[in-house]
Write a structure and sequence with these properties.
about 10% helix; signal; 46 strands; mainly beta; about 950 residues; 22-stranded antiparallel β-barrel; five-stranded mixed sheet
């Protein structure tokens, strides 16, 4: 008699055989049932358990749509990170990776380089990412997991649940679940080696992966290990003026500006959007006088003043055309990343039906990126006409003739010898101890699965070449001393070591001056995230009714999450909880209260919460007849108690109907889902960042310090989701599978944070509640600086409606080979966001294709054609994004415009083109063990359009990859 491990290996082999057959037919189209049809399983074969439900009984059909991506599809995608493969699916919209540096590379938030998945565009925080159905320790304070830290070579499939799943899996599963499933019984050896480069010779990468598995002690013990190394050189940002690196096309220089509501000239639009050749009038490449009688005087690289060429159509600090040398495009295009991941699993069969196991996942992910590169000053500097560096120019005489002693000045500050660079290191240590198997109560087999997980993510964020505001302000104010030497004007600054700098010339400042400006160090934030989780679940078919077996799943879970952040004293300030405050240099130019850096003012913080949960699911057959068909009902419920937010309940009711029409199945789900506030929303220390905003009172742009605070009083978000769909596999067209699913998600009590501009506009428009959070007076770099303060709140709502279409067709062409066609499409009918605050736009986000609009395209489509013959296979993939808008609510006009309103603002331009990308890949088998492959992404090298967000469009261009796989 075969022992348990051998039998489990055979069962899993059968799973893979059946799963591969199904995958060849319908993947990555929706997997429409929790398991393969009972008739498809040979006697003794194990069911194929996917993530749509916690019920694992054979023959149970889960009503929640679930897309299953098999190992074959993952290999065809040939991406060095599984994140990039999954993020291409139409249901995944707004996923943030290393190439999305504006959303995932800001200076002041510590989220640099994450690979976080986002279903429906509802946010990564509303997508639950699991590994083998288990939670993963967060890589960031918002609670999201970093896919880069997963053991990717041992992943055998990925389940994407495209519907509310909180009743099954708990908080965060509002938009759905992405579950990475490992091969727990892998035997043998396999490896993967690949390299890639862009058509511009950058973004060069190398990936090396290896895995091995053994059966020991008569196959009662199974051990597997995996390791991988990935290095990507990334793509640096451009320079001031729009020039891009490595021969890439210059930036489009797009920009948007506006009048205050009701302040635009009669008949003119409120907003002006310039897709090409926009130019700011708030700063110069070297420098620009921005206000007063000398406004329009710029400086060249030699320090000579000249008349700035403004261009045409100037509105609130932005023009079209002109000299085009001050546009800033320094954001890193693709973050370089180094990833090292190690994984091990050991399982032992205590009995033929019970296994105990332990897993360890250790990883390190290093990334870096450059944001705006230099401490730009958009017209917010006050310069004395007597500045020593101006003495050799005509400026002092002009000041005297105009009767002024100072002027406003803006500069890109490209004279710094080094760009601001953020270095991030994430080290994850994740350990799981568990057991699974079955036992009998009477004649009823009971399956069980229990585990305990402890995970730690240590995240270090260090910034180099960041300037200190107080020191910078002192260094630019230069005079001559009694010996004729140029020195800092302040005696206090001189005593502190101040070295003057010339911001009226393009000459790079000295290393000594730069070292003083940056303090010889930089901002840092060292965070520790910990998660402990325990779960136990039981599955059984305790009885059957008139229509079939009744299945039950029940269990309990517990989770505790904790974080602590330690930051540098320059940013945090000198407080009792700041370590090493004795080393904080006494400097009268800096504030002991912190916020001294131009950007990256991190603050200390800590917080924790825990949750206890219990769930129950029932699969109840209602009818099974030849005349009417088979109807199954699915009922789920979960109750939870959060230490911060109190009690919360979720539920789901769904049904499937195998109709009398052969091959046609109908399904529907109604669910109540929730997302509890995360550590960031509850306990985040103040996060500060320098950002430009429009002062509605003056119409001009001003640089402010934006501060975001946590809110411990937050309550869970509540979502109501409806999914209704159909699956059709007609007998008269063998190999064809088509599905359609309509979804309606209504999220209430949504946790939201107003943007800086929204807070300012609310105050300007008379909502005095927010005026205390806005201050425009003061001097940046001192304790009295312009600021905007915002906190998350529970007032917002979000309603999203749309549908998914998936189809697959597989045809044997005889001697010509095998052809597989697939199509996946998601259409966003509507996505309405409402802050719940009077005077704010009720935003339509469906069709908002901008960089920072938080919207989704109307259509996202993925088409695939695969041909196989003998050792050769070829795959074509088309990725399509529909055209969109800057603001779908806008009225477009250039003259005779109607009055602009909050809900329907007027724009002169409101179009973002769509995109269609073609990818080509191929494989060739060299015997049974070796396979060589290639992949070309974005074959026609389409670039992202003006205003187009990198969350939607490809910012990198044509990519080439070549690799070899070995499996023995």
């Amino acid at each position: 008699m075969k022992n348990a491990r051998t039998m489990r290996h055979i069962a899993n082999r059968n799973r893979l055989i059946i799963g591969s057959s199904l995958a060849a037919l319908i993947l990555p189209a929706t997997t429409h049932a929790q398991t393969a049809p009972a008739s498809a399983n040979p006697p003794g074969a194990a069911e194929i358990i996917v993530t749509g439900s916690r019920i694992t009984a054979s023959g149970f059909n889960a009503p929640t749509p679930t897309t299953v991506v098999s190992i074959e599809q993952l290999q065809q995608a040939a991406q060095p990170n599984l994140f990039d493969s999954i993020a291409q699916l139409p249901a995944l919209q707004g996923s943030v990776g290393t190439a999305n540096t504006r959303q995932n590379g800001g200076t002041s938030f510590g989220n640099n380089g994450l690979s976080a998945l986002n279903l429906r565009g509802l946010g990564s925080i509303r997508t639950l990412t699991l590994l083998d159905g288990q939670r993963v320790v967060p890589a960031y304070i918002t609670g999201i997991a970093d896919v880069s830290q997963f053991p990717q070579l041992l992943i055998k499939r990925v389940d994407v649940v495209t519907g509310g799943a909180s009743a099954s899996w708990g908080s965060d599963a509002v938009a759905g679940v992405v579950n990475f499933v490992t091969d727990k019984t892998f035997k043998g050896y396999k490896a993967n080696l690949s390299g890639g480069t862009s058509t511009y010779g950058d973004d060069q990468s190398v990936l090396a992966q290896a895995a091995a598995g053994w059966g020991l002690m008569g196959d009662r013990m199974h051990i597997e290990v995996a390791g991988e190394y990935f290095r990507n050189g990334g793509v640096p940002g451009g320079e001031v003026g729009g020039a891009q690196p490595n021969g890439r096309p210059d930036a489009y220089r797009s920009g948007t500006t506006s009048y205050a509501l009701g302040a635009q000239p009669a008949g003119s639009p409120q907003f002006y959007a310039y897709p090409y050749n926009a130019q700011t009038t708030t700063l110069g490449s070297v420098g620009l006088i921005t206000a007063g009688p000398l406004a329009g005087t710029a400086f060249d690289k030699s320090g000579n003043p000249y008349a700035f060429q403004y261009g045409t159509g100037c509105v609130s600090g932005t023009c079209v055309g002109g000299q085009q040398d001050n546009y800033i495009t320094t954001n890193t295009i693709d973050n370089p990343i180094n990833r090292v991941v190690g994984y091990g699993r050991i399982g032992f069969d205590l009995t033929p039906n019970i296994e105990i196991y332990a897993t360890a996942n250790v990883s390190e992910v290093r990334t870096s990126n450059t944001p705006i590169a230099y401490p730009r000053k958009p017209g917010n500097l006050t310069i004395q006409c007597s500045n020593a560096y101006l003495a050799s120019t005509t400026i002092p005489a002009l000041c005297a003739s105009k009767g002024i002693t100072s002027f406003s000045y803006g500069t890109a500050n490209a004279i710094m010898p080094g760009k601001e660079t953020i270095y991030s290191v994430r080290r994850q240590y994740r350990f799981v101890l568990g057991t699974e198997g079955s036992f009998n109560i009477g004649s009823t087999p009971i399956k069980f699965d229990a585990y305990y997980q402890h995970g730690t993510n240590n995240v270090h964020v260090d910034i180099r070449n960041m300037t200190l505001n107080g020191r910078y302000n002192a260094a630019i104010n230069a005079v001559r001393d009694s010996n004729g030497n140029i020195v800092c004007s302040s005696a206090t600054a001189r005593a502190a070591g101040c070295i003057p700098i010339n911001i009226f010339s393009g000459a790079t400042i000295s290393d000594a001056a730069f070292a003083w400006l940056t303090g010889g160090t930089g901002p840092y934030q060292y965070s520790t995230f910990k998660e402990d989780a325990a779960s136990i679940a039981f599955n059984a078919t305790p009885f059957h009714n008139w229509a079939g077996d009744v299945s039950v799943a029940l269990g309990a879970e517990w989770r505790n999450e904790y974080y602590k952040t330690i930051s540098d004293p320059y940013g945090n300030g000198v407080t009792v909880d700041t370590p090493n405050t004795a080393t904080y240099p006494a400097d009268p130019l800096l504030s002991a209260g912190g916020n001294n850096w131009f950007a990256g003012n991190y603050h200390n913080g800590s917080g924790a919460f825990n949750v206890r949960e219990a769930f129950l699911e029932i699969g109840l057959p209602l009818l099974n007849s030849k005349q009417i068909g088979k109807i199954d009902l699915s009922l789920s419920g979960r109750t939870a108690h959060y230490s911060t937010a109190g009690n919360a309940n979720t539920w789901k009711v769904g049904a499937t109907w195998d109709t009398p029409l052969s091959g046609l199945k109908l399904r529907g789900v109604v669910s109540r889902d929730l997302r509890a506030p995360n550590l960031s929303e509850l306990f985040a220390a103040p996060q500060t960042a320098n950002q430009p905003v429009i002062n509605r009172a003056t119409g001009g742009t001003v640089q402010v310090v934006s501060t975001t605070l946590g809110n411990p009083a937050l309550k869970p978000e509540i979502a109501k989701t409806i999914d209704v769909g159909a699956v059709y596999r007609p007998d008269f067209i063998p190999g064809l599978s088509v599905s359609f699913d309509y979804y309606d998600i209504r999220l209430n009590q949504a946790i939201s944070t107003l943007t800086n501009q929204q807070v300012i506009d609310l105050c300007y428009n008379g909502n005095t509640t927010y005026c205390s959070n806005v201050k425009f007076t003061g001097t940046l770099g001192t304790s009295d600086y312009p600021y905007v303060i915002s906190q998350p709140f529970n007032l917002a709502s979000l309603n999203m409606r749309g549908f998914d279409i998936e189809a697959a067709y597989r045809r044997n062409l005889g001697k010509a080979g095998m052809l597989t066609l697939r199509a996946l499409a998601t259409h966003a009918i509507s996505m309405v966001s409402n802050t719940g605050i009077a005077g704010q736009q009720i935003a339509q986000l469906a069709g908002n294709n901008t960089e920072t609009g938080n919207g989704v395209p109307k259509w996202k489509i993925m088409l695939q054609q695969n041909w196989e013959k003998g050792p050769v296979s070829l795959t074509l993939t088309e990725r399509i994004i529909s055209a969109g808008y800057i603001d779908p609510n806008a009225i477009v006009c250039s003259t005779t415009c109607p009055a602009s309103t909050v809900q329907n603002p007027t724009y002169n331009f409101n179009h973002i083109p769509g995109a269609a990308y073609l990818d080509i890949g191929g494989n060739y088998k060299l015997g049974k063990a070796t396979q060589v492959y290639f992949k070309i992404d974005n074959v026609f090298n389409h670039r992202a359009p003006p205003f187009g967000g990198t969350l939607l469009y490809d910012p990198i261009g044509r990519m080439f990859r070549l690799g070899v796989r070995v499996a023995m």
